[in-house]
Design brief:
Length: 96
């Protein structure tokens, strides 16, 4: 019985370590290949979209879309929003 608990504990430890290394790797690669992620405030996003005069049925492309907050606000205004991001962790986060 003790061997089973030891095996399960070891498996959980390896899985946790793997997830940690994966997130660290993705974060480092994202910063090396592209610009570091910097979140815009809600006021800044609204000001940018007001200046851009977003209209319904327009297509907006956000290069370096980060967590997708600008895309979400653009879609709320009726435009088609397309985001392009190098960091796979941020892509995953924005899809959630």
């Amino acid at each position: 019985m003790t061997a089973i608990y030891l095996f399960i504990s070891f498996f959980i430890l390896l899985l946790s370590l793997g997830v940690f290394v994966f997130v660290l790797y993705i974060t480092i690669i994202g910063d090396i290949k592209g610009a570091p992620f910097s979140k815009s405030s809600q006021i800044e996003i609204q000001t940018m979209l007001d200046f851009a005069k977003i209209k319904k049925n327009e297509t907006i492309i956000d290069l370096g879309s980060g967590d997708g907050t600008i895309l979400i606000e653009t879609a709320k205004r009726g435009a088609k929003a397309i985001g392009i991001e190098l960091n796979p962790f941020l892509v995953w986060y924005s899809r959630i």
